[in-house]
Every structure is written in C-alpha cells, then in structure tokens.
Amino acid sequence: xxxxxxxxxxxxxxxxxxxxxxxxxxxxxxxxxxxxxxxxxxxxxxxxxxxxxxxxxxxxxxxxxxxxxxxxxxxxxxxxxxxxxxxxxxxxxxxxxxxxxxxxxxxxxxxxxxxxxxxxxxxxxxxxxxxxxxxxxxxxxxxxxxxxxxxxxxxxxxxxxxxxxxxxxxxxxxxxxxxxxxxxxxxxxxxxxxxxxxxxxxxxxxxxxxxxxxxxxxxxxxxxxxxxxxxxxxxxxxxxxxxxxxxxxxxxxxxxxxxxxxxxxxxxxxxxxxxxx
Length: 277
Known about the structure:
The protein is of the alpha+beta class. It has helices spanning about 125-135, 140-160, 170-180, 190-195, 200-210, 215-230, 235-245, 250-260, 265-270, and strands at about 1-5, 10-20, 25, 30, 35-50, 50-55, 60-65, 70-75, 75-85, 85-90, 110-115, 120.
C-alpha cells in the first residue's frame, strides 16, 4: 500500500471523465501529481513503474506522484480521474508500519493516509467520487471547497478500511452504512433495525473490530467532518451542526468541546484562515 501525507486542505486539483470507444494506447508519462482513477465502464490496463494492473468496471487505482504510468485498452472504456496534491512517502505492507520509511521532519504519521494500490470501489467510495463530479458542474468557491471535503473523505475512507479485507464481516457492513449515512439522522437503534440485530450485538461486533461503539464512532466522524466546514467555509455554527447530522447546535458544541477542548468558534479562530467570500 502507498503512504501519502496531505498537507493542504485544498487537495483536489483536477477532476473529470475520459472515454474511448475503440481502444486506446497511451505512450506513457510521469505523473506530476498523485491520481485516483475509477473505471466507470469497460476495462483498462495500467502499467505503473513496470507493474501491470488489469482493471474492470467498478475498480479503482492509485497512481503515485512521480511514477511512470501507461494506461491502455483494446475496447471501450470510460474512467474518472482525480488528480490530487499530497506528498508521497513510500510503500509499506501493513497500515501504520512506517519504521522502514524515511519520514521527513515535521510530518506526523497520524496525518498520513495508507492507501491500497488498487481494488474494487465500495459503494461509499463511488458515492464520494460521483458527488465530486456533480459538484464540478457548479462553478463556485463553495462548490470547490465541498469537492475537497468530499475527496478528503474518500481518502479517509480508503485509509480506514485498507487493513480490513473481509467485506463479509458485519462490523464492516455497519461501518460502510454509517459512513454513507453519516449526515442523516442515524442512531444505534436505526442501525440495529437496518441490519436486523439487537443493539447489543451491533455494539459488540463493531467494538470488537474498531475499538469504539457505533455511537461514539458516529459522533467522532461527524465532529471530524465539521472541522473541515469550520476551516474551509464561513458557514454559521448552526448550519454546520445541521449539515453534519447533529440534533441541535448546543449538543454539537458540547461534543465538540469534549473532543477538542475548544468551542467550534474558538477552534475556527485558532486554526482558520479568515475565509471571506
């Protein structure tokens, strides 16, 4: 898997779609930026630094910055591409195993993403990528910021599940369901009803796999998402609270303070960039 470090909130640089109807052979080039490619339809073979990957509909692949890549197909293919700015650290076999890598000074491992080289895109990843391309049709600063938030969520999703390849586990299904419905009014009760298990069984399965209860996980992910809105937009606290799935601004502010030891307003003042538009 690849290890990358994202320094900037404005991570996504170019996004779009490309299609060929009767085969295509690329001469190859060096990637100026990292790229995530998703095969919407058809099939395509990627050669990256002399290593070949055969991709079909629904597959994705990561092309690291400064690597030589050469895509080609003998038939119809449509794929989406997402070029993003991040520092490529290297490769590792296991998530969080970076002892053999040369980590530049000032880079925290906790801020690194551990990304699979390629794989089958989950419904959650597809949703993020689709929403990014839909936002792209809206030319505005708020749409651009939302695209970056969506793409960071996509990277976070890939990084979170990279070490869990057993997609049949109920814990993974619960994880995926929560991420897809994070900003909806989901609760432990509604999750249990969706999967047809008791609430205690849902708690036990999820906590065994991820170390936290589903409720705590939902709150954590909503709070993490809210920090992006705090730093990247000038939305009111009440708007952010509602957008991230919290019942009331008061409850959101209380949970935010419990995690960050700052109110949302103070967090924005301390870490924000004074956005105005």
